[in-house]
Amino acid sequence: MSSRSDFIGTPTNRVVGTVTDASKAREAIGALLQAGFHQEHIDLLQGEQGLHRLDETGAHHGFLAQFQRTMIRTLETDDFKHLSHHVEDVRAGRCVIMVLTKRREQRIVAGDILHQYGAEFVGFYGRWAWADVPPSHHMTPADVPAMFARAWTAGDANALASLFDGDADFVSGTGLCWHGRESIRKEHAARLPGVGVTMEPTGETRVKLLLPEVGVVHAHMTLSSQSGADPVAPPARTTIISFVVHRVGERWLCASAHTTDVVSDQVAS
Fold first, then answer.
1. pLDDT in the model for residue 213
2. What is the side-by-side strand order in the sheet with 251-261?
3. Model pTM above 0.85
4. Is the dihedral of CA 246, 251, 255, 257 positive or negative?
5. Domain 143-268 top-level CATH class
6. Does the structure show a pLDDT above 50 at 106?
């Protein structure tokens, strides 16, 4: 049996979800750590030990009894039902993951990660009430390269510049550095190709979250002429664009971007 210091009372300010597959639960915890959550803020409750952490002395005492005393005459509230559900999940051998999330942005990120690894019954326990945490379905860091490529292909410098902060930096493949959204807009307006040349993400887009609201995105982009658009057009080329992004409300904006052309070893040497 776990010690009292290991006992979890009402899980205030925590996003909680049930993952049936133990390997998926471990992968979810790895993703949470990579997203910037501290290990001491993540609890994996599984098996008999996890059950004692939720309900130290049995279903009619410990955790549930403590919660009953704080919710006198409200045993039919949704909060009590949800807490009881998680105790039953642990008792049935499923994995319950609890993540301390004191800020709304953290709540969104934790909820999305749990959903990504197949979690069910994902919710947030605030100070007084439980709230469902559905998948956000909002913009993610991985969406930035595709949005950039669409604006570039369309020759839309305004749409491209809207992806950047007001004081963002952009470093071109030739080493030119443009500072500020307006400068980025003007320079791209002067350089964007006409109809017939496309940019599109190819291969894997890699996202590394440094904090729940800050990340680095690396994307391979292929630039090529549309079929028949220009018979003497240069061959397709590949570039890597690295974006430093951060969350602003439900959007991710670029603080910095840097392009690097990909060349073969033979050409490089």
1. 86
2. 177-179, 164-171, 251-261, 237-248, 214-225, 197-211
3. no
4. positive
5. alpha beta
6. yes
